[in-house]
């Protein structure tokens, strides 16, 4: 049985598998070396040799229990023919959506653009290094993708209220995203993904009256679809105000919590397996503080099925030796 299945299937409370969001990324010098000679981020994601190599980089270095594929949630808008660019120091910039075209798009058209991702997954799952590791595929949640697709850039500085006004384009996009996200999930599973994580990075922007339409209803469809394929699904509704309501309605295989959420509230209210929580900034401090914070999460969840992870992605300025220390500590707990 692979490490994460002990949590999903056996609901083990004595073993804490560990993987880290953004474990393949900019804090690793070997990633930065590849990135330097590959300035086009989308092209890099579509290079199956390099993206599989990047996926395996953290697995070679650290005793992690899962490999998350090196890709991006914005590969879906890219597959839907929206222009996606990553600008240095700015972030993603998207082009206009051609609604007429996107409404007619077929799965085979989408696959023509995204197939390198599935081929990469195949390479990763055949590699000896992943023999005893879970391979995690992922998608952005419909809401988070909608935000990038309509806002056309990061919503870091907020979105205006007009966004939520009833508008037929949004309704159409939600239907399109449902169809193609299911397809993207299915293809990842067919090519070796053993777990799916749904990233809803901007769930915290939705107020109560809009939760049903933008978060609960579209996410539930993807969760039920993934479970129907017998694959566990982890949801990360970052900064959502009420994790308990979310879990009661969505019932994912595990819930990933952000670092602003009080783990004591979570352990009190939530019965399903939990993942994550620790602030990535703790890795920027010293070994003693890291040890203390790590132990805090492990102690709180000691009688609960718990996958160790952070409460958001590992920061680019993180020293890889701190990551090594963290993984060893969780393994020795
Ligand atoms: O070198 C670089 O500048 C590229 C940085 C980078 C990396 C390493 C981006 C651009 N994406 C990725 C990979 C990535 N993205 C992974 C790989 C697997 C891993 O975890 O190791 C994953 C899972 C993602 C998911 C992703 N992309 C999310 C959800 C998680 C989160 O961080 O909240 C989001 C919001 C994105 C969009 C995106 N892609 C890249 C950036 C810098 C962003 C965020 C833009 C913003 O601030 O709004």
In total, the number of strands is 9
Largest beta-sheet details: 7 strands, parallel
- Helical percent range? 40-55%
Q: At CATH's second level, what is the architecture? A: Alpha-Beta Barrel
Structural class label:
alpha/beta
**Whole-number count of domains:** 1
Unreliable sequence segments? none
Rg from Cα: 19 Å
Task: Report the end-to-end length measured between terminal Cα atoms.
Answer: 21 Å
Plain-language structure description:
This protein is of the alpha/beta class and 333 residues long. It has one domain: TIM Barrel. It has 14 helices and nine strands. The protein has a seven-stranded parallel sheet. The chain has a two-stranded antiparallel sheet with strand order 2-3. Strand 5, helix 10 and strand 6 form a beta-alpha-beta unit. Helix 13 packs parallel to helix 14. The chain is globular. 43% of the residues are buried. The model has no long low-confidence stretch (mean pLDDT 96).
């Amino acid at each position: 049985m692979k490490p994460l299945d002990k949590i999903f299937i056996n609901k083990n409370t004595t073993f804490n598998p560990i993987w880290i969001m953004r474990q393949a990324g900019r804090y690793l010098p070997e990633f930065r070396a590849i990135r330097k000679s590959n300035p086009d981020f989308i092209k890099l994601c579509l290079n199956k040799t390099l993206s599989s190599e990047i996926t395996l980089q953290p697995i070679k270095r650290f005793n992690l229990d899962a490999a998350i594929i090196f890709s991006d949630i914005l590969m879906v808008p890219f597959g839907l023919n929206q222009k996606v660019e990553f600008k240095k120091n700015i972030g993603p910039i998207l082009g206009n959506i051609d609604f007429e075209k996107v409404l007619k798009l077929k799965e085979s058209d989408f696959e023509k653009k995204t197939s390198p991702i599935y081929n990469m997954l195949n390479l990763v799952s055949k590699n000896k290094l992943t023999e005893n590791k879970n391979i995690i595929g992922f998608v952005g949640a419909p809401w988070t993708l909608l935000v990038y697709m309509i806002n056309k850039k990061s919503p870091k500085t907020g979105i205006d209220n007009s966004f939520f006004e009833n508008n037929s384009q949004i309704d159409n996009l939600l239907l399109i995203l449902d169809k193609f996200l299911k397809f993207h999930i299915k293809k990842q599973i067919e090519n070796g993904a053993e777990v799916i994580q749904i990233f809803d990075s901007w769930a915290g922007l939705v107020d109560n009256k809009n939760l049903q339409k933008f978060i609960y209803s579209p996410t539930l469809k993807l969760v039920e679809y993934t479970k129907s394929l017998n694959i566990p699904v982890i949801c990360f509704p970052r900064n959502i105000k009420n994790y308990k309501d979310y879990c009661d309605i969505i019932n994912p295989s595990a819930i990933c919590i952000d670092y602003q959420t009080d783990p004591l509230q979570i352990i009190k209210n939530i019965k399903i397996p939990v993942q994550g929580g620790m602030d990535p900034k703790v890795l920027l401090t010293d070994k003693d503080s890291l040890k203390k914070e790590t132990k805090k999460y492990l102690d709180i969840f000691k009688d609960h099925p718990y996958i160790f992870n952070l409460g958001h992605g590992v920061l680019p300025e993180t020293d890889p030796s701190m990551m090594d220390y963290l993984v060893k500590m969780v393994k020795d707990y």
